[in-house]
Write a structure and sequence with these properties.
The chain contains 14 helices and nine strands. By secondary structure, the protein is α/β, with parallel strands linked by helices. It folds into two domains: 54 residues; 335 residues, Glycosidases (TIM Barrel). It has an eight-stranded parallel β-barrel with strand order 1-2-3-4-5-6-8-9, surrounded by six helices. Strand 2, helix 6 and strand 3 form a beta-alpha-beta unit. The longest helix has 25 residues. The chain starts with a helix and ends in a 6-residue tail after the last helix. It binds ligand G3I. Ligand G3I binds next to loops.
């Protein structure tokens, strides 16, 4: 399962080579054409079977529908009573599920895209903001007494989707790129934080500063222009605008040990030693190609909180197909999700657990290749009919044991 990309690529290469051989042999009327034809047919068959195996939608038994007696309190009530945030990402204010599940089940929300820099700009034009959608999401939550986590002031990956593409052009054309970027960043952070002042009290100041390609910082426009201290600069600018706001560094980890993790801790250490106003670390917690080693993850949480930082799980999801070899995949997914959340619940400095979507009906996996073809993804706490899944119950029970900070 985890290696399907390697399998597909290698198999496709073999099929291609055999096809070339077959075409050349046919063209030359070579006697090897029969062998080439047979090999090509066999390989193509394996490839088709392979695709069929991974890309045919599956159905797994939903034993959870009868397995759990309802508990009187909701997830949000239990979390609030025990000093914890249980959150969900909201993709749009018009999602009818928003009013159905918030505030009943979630006492915290996080706009999935609406508070990203590019998303708040009219036609991607720097400085021209339209806060309509972000306000609709945020105001609904605030009116219901639900906390909002802002996501995100600065994110250097995927130009044009996360930050405005115009920025690349402006920096390329100016005589003093560092001054220009400082100015634009400062204006952006000030405008956005002032706009949401009093409503968003926790922001991801910087999202994903680490590279996806190796154990290093991501070489994005901010790093290339301002050096690695762009991260410190963003935190300082944000703190200056509103010192009462908690500022987090948000990151996704494929593994919770290894060289990349050490680089990340080096960065945290550097920020702490430089008295940068960082309050916590957001661990995204996506389970995309594999599940995580939970012992390593627990230790990782402790390493962060031992630095005197808060921590939150900010974007958890775990695709059901990571559990398809189990006898009861939904239960296995629930057990894993519960264990992941419990490690946070048991650490007094881990203050919240947010899932990346309200229900299995609105998960980003359903819109990105190849996962949109590897259905179902079903990675969240509620199914598409908003029925609670096993982790819902597991987390609720665990929350009752939460120790106050
Ligand atoms: O809504 C527009 C649609 O009108 C347009 O036709 C279409 C054409 O591409 O784009 C649609 O917007 C897309 C949006 O998702 C809604 O589906 C954007 O292109 C696409 O870039 C955007 O992707 C988001 C991605 O971040 C990039 O911002 C995902 O929804 C969102 O789930 C994902 O979230 C990230 C976190 O912010 C950071 N951590 C990883 C996580 C998952 O990638």
């Amino acid at each position: 399962m985890n290696n399907y990309i390697i399998y597909t690529t290698v198999l496709s290469l073999f099929v291609l080579i055999s096809l070339i051989w077959l075409v050349v042999a046919l063209f030359r009327r070579s006697p090897s054409r029969k062998i080439a034809g047979a090999i090509f047919a066999a390989e193509a068959l394996v490839l088709v079977c392979f695709y069929f195996f991974y890309f045919t939608p599956r159905r797994f038994p939903r034993n959870y529908l009868t397995a759990y007696p309802p508990l009187p309190a909701t997830l949000a009530q239990t979390a609030t009573q025990n000093g914890f945030y249980i959150g969900a990402a909201i993709n749009r204010s018009a999602n009818p599920t928003y009013a159905e599940l918030v505030p009943r089940e979630f006492n915290s929300i996080r706009p999935e895209n609406a508070t990203k820099w590019r998303r708040m700009l009219v036609n991607g034009k720097i400085g021209k903001y339209d806060f309509t959608e972000a306000d609709a999401i945020v105001d609904y939550a605030i009116a219901k007494g639900v906390r909002v986590r802002g996501h995100t002031l600065v994110w250097g990956k995927f130009p044009g989707r996360t930050y405005p593409k115009e920025l690349d052009q402006r920096i390329a054309e100016t005589g003093d790129p560092a001054a220009e970027l400082q100015q634009i960043l400062g204006d952006h952070i000030t405008t956005v934080m002032r706009h949401f002042k009093g409503r968003i009290k926790v922001w991801d100041a910087v999202n994903e500063p680490m590279s996806m390609d190796g154990p290093d910082l991501d070489k994005n426009i901010f790093l290339n222009t301002l050096g690695k201290d762009y991260i410190a600069a963003v935190f300082r600018m944000a703190h200056e605008v509103d010192p009462s706001v908690q500022l987090f560094l948000n990151e996704q980890f494929g593994n919770y040990t290894g060289e990349g993790v050490e680089v990340f801790f080096g960065l945290l250490q550097h920020l702490k030693e430089s008295n940068v106003p960082i309050h916590g670390v957001g661990i995204q917690g996506h389970n995309i190609f594999k599940t995580h080693n939970l012992d390593e993850y627990r230790e990782f949480l402790t390493r962060i909180t031992d630095l005197g930082l808060l921590v939150e799980i900010t974007e958890f999801d775990a695709r059901i197909r990571l559990f398809e070899d189990s006898d009861d995949p939904y239960q296995a997914q629930g057990d894993y999700t519960t264990a992941y959340a419990v490690a946070c619940i048991e650490n007094p400095s881990c203050v919240g657990f947010t899932v990346w979507g309200l229900s299995d009906a609105s998960t980003w996996f359903d819109s990105i290749p190849p996962f949109r073809w590897m259905l179902p993804n079903d990675p969240l706490l509620f199914d598409t009919e908003l029925r609670p899944k096993p982790a819902y119950h597991g987390i609720k029970i665990a929350l009752k044991r939460r120790q106050p900070r």
